[in-house]
Amino acid sequence: MSGLPAHQPPRNLPAAERRAHAVATVLELASEQNPSEITTAAIAERMRLTQGALFRHFPNKQAIWLAVMEWVSGQLMKRVARAAAQTTGSPLATLEAVFMAHVDFVARHPGIPRMLFGELQHADSTPAKQCVQHMISQYREQISLLLEAGKQAGEVAAEVDVPDAATLFIGTIQGLVMQALLRGSTRRMRSDASGAFAIYRRGIRSGS
Questions:
Q1: Alpha-carbon 24 to chain mean position
Q2: Which residues pair with residue 205 across a beta bridge?
Q3: Lower Cβ count inside 10 Å, N or C end of the chain?
Q4: pTM (predicted TM-score)
């Protein structure tokens, strides 16, 4: 996703760039419609390719979905790590930076939550679903580490249950996402996020 418009690809892209372009196209389509209704024909048409050309880069639709989830996972974890590294302050300040970075990522790519929720609803354990589950597990672990650091620093109340607080952190973001989906727009997510995190912070902060 290097700023390349999903509907105007240059000719003769290298294989890696063509795959990245396919991922961008799927996320663009997912922001417009139910991801379960996206066909390989629609992806190829938006990319101005034949389906045969698309399948030269992916063996099947499942492989395309896995590539999308791998991109989402890699980008989200990279942004979370960058936000944490750039925050020179308290663990609570780092938690807030991570929270806002996550919300900003979703606001920039509104097709992502549709894709994630769609994959998690699958009864079967598809490779894409496994990728999403692994990402959530990694994310929860990072949040838990920050909460433990907050306890050590005396910023997070000693009685706070870290696993529950990590679940609530993720759930608060998911709530903002659901509200955005109900409104049909992610525009207010950033402004709503500030108030939502303030409430979360009050709930876990140490009185001292």
A1: 14
A2: 156
A3: C
A4: 0.86
